[in-house]
Amino acid sequence: MERPHILLIGKNGQVGWELRRALAPMARLTAVDFPEIDLTDADAARKLVLDTRPALVLNAAAYTAVDKAESDAETARLINAVAPGALAETAREIGAWIVHFSTDYVFDGAKRQPYVETDAPNPLGVYGRTKLEGDRAVQAANARHLIFRLCWVYGTRGQNFLLTIQRLARERETLRVVQDQFGCPTWSRLIAEAVALALRQVLANGGDAARFAGTYHLAARGYTNWHTFASRIVELMPESERRCRQVQAISTAEYPTPARRPAWSVLDCGKLKRVFGLELPDWEAGLRLALDQP
User: Fold this and answer.
1) What is residue 210's predicted lDDT score, i.e. its pLDDT?
2) Residue 294: cis peptide before it, omega within 30 degrees of 0
């Protein structure tokens, strides 16, 4: 089978960087990021797809500054909502698939069972609202699409919770971390590898949209809260590298932020397993893999 041409947007992000690694063996890859592409310009997004004419468009770029989005809503909307719609419409025009990444923040966290794909979204802030707009724009374009909703993504590069906790643990004796928000911490490499395996199946089956197209939850098994996640990160650091001796549990009310966050972000990934036969490891196992721990 000839290797497909894939256009990857957001090559330097947490998931995008890992996608470059995971997709390289199976595709001819055109990978771009800002300033090569400015997703606040929908026409530039359309031109990029028309110029490259890939078989697959992967949009791994997003405005992810959750708190900053509250005061920068228009930029967040352009990147998270308008650009994905333009990419999906152009993908449909050239007969390409589009892969789009969404978030657990499309939900309000009021549920106390894992969210399934058909649960009604109700985002609490600008970030979640603009991401939901992007999901709906991709769906409305009638392109062959895959939307993967992610949860609590971290990695070993860039800016994320794992690296922040490690840095603070080297600097402080005590950390204060919220304990009343729950989710599924998921290593970006495992996300990328699962997406690559899913795309292999799509391509091997002739791009069967009726079988594969749709929205999927993609997250680690199990769930935890930010405090327990932080505690495990600190525990797995070598003693010689950390100053931290205590991770103190606090409430969301004790750590106010500009954006409201869902108290419950746990995703049910059963659909991914049923359709693609894919299941990520437990979040603690994923953390150990990321840190290369036995």
Assistant:
1) 81
2) no
d(Cα 144, Cα 59) in Å, to the nearest integer? 14
Q: Which domain holds residue 48?
A: 5-159+184-221+267-281
DSSP per-residue codes, 170-217: HH-SEEEEE-S-EE--EEHHHHHHHHHHHHHHHHHTT--HHHH-EEEE
pTM to 2 decimal places: 0.94
pLDDT tens figures, 130-156? 999 999 999 999 889 999 999 999 999
CATH number for the domain spanning 75: value is 3.40.50.720
Active site residue 223: no
Q: Which of 127, 154, 216, 223 is catalytic?
A: 127
- Residues, the chain: 294
3-state secondary structure of 129: helix
- C-alpha 152/C-alpha 225 separation (Å) is 10
228 three-state secondary structure: helix
